Every structure is written in structure tokens, then in C-alpha cells.
Amino acid sequence: MSDELKTLRKDASKKKRLASDIASKIHDLVEDTYWTEYDQLPALAQEAIAACEAWAEAQKLFDEASAEAESA
What we know:
Blueprint: H1 3-37, H2 41-71
């Protein structure tokens, strides 16, 4: 695997982890403090959406570069 592919894969993995971290925050809020901190959900949801979109774009770039490398 080329250095470029490794970098793209690492970036996608990092962004996926960040999205998972936000999902964990949402889960913890709902499980533990929903009745007192529910007002934080919209902001966390927006963060989660942005993080998932960033991951999807990074994953797409990796997938495209990977497919291109295989066909070369």
C-alpha cells in the first residue's frame, strides 16, 4: 500500500473515530442525564452529522484511490 493510500486510510479512520466519539456523547447524555441536559441534543446532533459527512467524504477518497491503485 502506497504512502498516499495509508494517509487516506488513516484520515478516514480518524474521522470515523471522531464521529463515534460524538455518538458516545449522545448515548451517554440519553442514558444518564436526558431529563436535565436534553437541550444539548440539537448541537450534538449537528456535530454528529458534520462528523459523519466528513468521514463519508474521507472514506470516499480512500475508496476511489484504492480502486485506482488496484486498476493500475
